[in-house]
Design a protein that fits this description.
By secondary structure, the chain is an alpha+beta fold. 33% of the residues lie in helices and 23% in strands.
């Protein structure tokens, strides 16, 4: 489902909070994550407690955000894609490869940088979304295809702020995860 374009204003922190609220997040949000837990279990990766807490807050939020991009028929300019990808009910065939890579060779690199156990959570970002992992202490680690450094964020809001610091936008339209409409 497409959510119509609404105005977004204020400083970047305020804009990110408005975007997250429009995407479906609210303070104290806690949704059923059994679909995601089953996905992780099916891949032999039981969810860590911090992964579960993150998913309860953010699973099922709108996955495609149209900020500077005004044409809804084109690709969205921002992704909030958590595993499993349920875009319009069609399984993304790249998803298993992404999850496998992010749980395998790339995970070792992230855990070395973090100094603790981590799990992949998906892709979040503007145009070239970051691969994102969560640590056992709840920090987010982002790896970008266009840079060698791994970045660390205290929460998803800080990650989104980093992603949007160069983006000029004053409104947003979004697409929901249709497979989850009315379920989370």
């Amino acid at each position: 489902m497409i959510k119509e374009r609404i105005p977004i204003s204020g400083d970047l922190g305020s804009k990110v909070k408005q975007l997250m609220e429009y995407a479906g997040w609210y303070e104290g949000r806690s949704v059923d994550i059994s679909i995601a837990e089953q996905y992780y279990a099916d891949h032999g990766v039981p969810m860590m407690k911090t992964t579960q807490r993150f998913y309860r807050k953010y699973f099922g939020l709108c996955c495609e955000w149209y900020l500077a991009q005004k044409k809804l028929k084109w690709a969205a300019d921002f992704e909030f894609a958590l595993f499993p990808y349920l875009v319009n009910g069609i399984k993304n065939h790249l998803e298993d490869a992404y999850f496998r890579d992010m749980s395998g060779c790339e995970l070792a690199e992230i855990e070395q940088a973090a100094g603790q156990k981590c799990q992949p959570i998906g892709h979040i970002g503007y145009y070239y979304p970051a691969e994102v992992w969560i640590s056992e202490y709840g920090k987010l680690y982002a790896k970008y295809e266009y840079q060698d450094e791994i970045e660390c964020f205290p929460d998803v809001f800080a990650l989104i702020e980093r992603e949007l610091r160069q983006c000029k936008f004053d409104s947003a339209a979004m697409k929901t995860v249709e497979a989850l409409d009315g379920k989370v």
